[in-house]
Structures are given as C-alpha cells and as structure tokens.
Q: What sequence folds into this?
C-alpha cells in the first residue's frame, strides 16, 4: 500500500487494469498467429516440393501408343496439403475473431459522451440473498459531467410477479464523471424469500441522461433441495 492508500504499486495490481489485460491478450494472439504462420509456411513448402517432383517425373508410355501413363500420387498429396492449409487458415481466423469479441461481450457499459450503452445486465440467483454485477460508466469527452447516479425500474415477470426497485442498490451511490474518465459501479439486487422462480425484466437508467439505458434480467431459479 502507498501512503495515499492505493494499490497501484502492488505487483498484482495490473490484474485489474483493462489496458494491461488488452495488451496481454494482443501478445498471446500475436504469438499464436506467428506459430500458425510457421505451420502454413511448412505446408506451402511441402506443396511446392510436391509440384516440383511431379513436374520432373518423366511419364511412362502406355502400351499400344495410348499416350503417357500419369502417376497421380504426387498431385493427390499436393491437393491434400492445400486442403489442410485452407482448413487451418479458416479455423485460425474464426478463433481470433471469437477471442477478440469475447471481452467486448463481457463488459456492460454506458457511454455518456456517445449517448450509447452496450450489453445486458444479467443476474442469477438460486436461493434468497444478494446477487451483484458491475456496470462500467465512460465519459470519453472533454466535458466534466458531474456526478452520475443510476436508477433501476421494478423488475417484472410474465405472470405479474414483481421485484421492487427498492431491492436494487448501487455502490457507490453516485460517481463523479470527469472528462475522459471511466468508473465502475456495483449493482446489487436483494432476492427476498417470497420471490418466486422466474425471469424478471426491467431497465437500468442514468439520472439526467435519458438516452443512455440498459435492459436488466434477473433469473431466479428454484432452490436446490
């Protein structure tokens, strides 16, 4: 701990730094791509060698003057190598695309400079008690937006059952959004004993920012016996 009570100097503090995590992810992806490139280069070399061997092989004449007898063995090997190379490249592209998209889908964000929000607040409870998740607030603009306070509506199930808005809490209750800053807020819902199993839906809004909102889903399951 430093004198001001921060944990920035601790060796494991980078675990909580989104920028550091993004750099590490990029490094891992780059290493994987280099390794795959080496494999592809070897396959291409094998294919070139197979073509060279096929072109230098003198075809034997068929009896009766029916023309040269072609040996399709090298050509079939080349076709198999090229097919394997295409499959490898396709799998690599799909893997990298999925890896890049994963962190984006995992973050629940509200951007006040762009008047936008992404993701859905999803919480699940198998028994009475408190469940929580984190919502990230962003201000990428040059204007100080003052303090931001989140609000949640009542959560309604299809049969009319309700989880009241009073069961939802935020920590901290309000955060200052300076220019070019980001803050995380913990959203917690108290699931009381009388709440029946079901899917409860509502809306998360920001006080004073009517265009920025997120859907909320609370899944309450039957208690395990």
A:
């Amino acid at each position: 701990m430093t004198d001001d009570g921060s944990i920035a100097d601790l060796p494991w503090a980078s675990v909580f730094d989104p920028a550091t995590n993004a750099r590490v992810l990029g490094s891992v992806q780059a290493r994987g791509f280099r390794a795959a490139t080496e494999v592809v280069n070897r396959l291409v070399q094998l294919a070139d060698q197979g073509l060279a061997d096929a072109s230098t092989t003198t075809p034997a004449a068929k009896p009766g003057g029916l023309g040269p007898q072609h040996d399709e063995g090298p050509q079939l090997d080349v076709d198999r190598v090229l097919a394997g190379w295409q499959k490898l490249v396709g799998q690599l592209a799909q893997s990298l695309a999925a890896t890049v998209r994963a962190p984006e889908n995992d973050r629940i964000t509200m951007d006040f400079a762009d008047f936008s929000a992404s993701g859905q607040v999803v919480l699940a409870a198998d028994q009475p008690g408190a469940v929580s998740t984190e919502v990230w607030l962003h201000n990428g603009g040059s204007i100080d937006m003052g303090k931001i306070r989140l609000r949640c509506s009542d959560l309604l199930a299809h049969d009319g059952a309700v989880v009241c808005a009073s069961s939802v809490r935020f920590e901290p209750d309000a955060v200052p959004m300076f220019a070019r800053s980001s803050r995380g807020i913990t959203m917690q819902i108290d699931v009381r004993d009388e709440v029946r199993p079901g899917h409860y839906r509502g809306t998360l809004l920001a006080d004073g920012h009517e265009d920025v909102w997120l859907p909320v889903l609370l899944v309450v399951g039957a208690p395990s016996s």
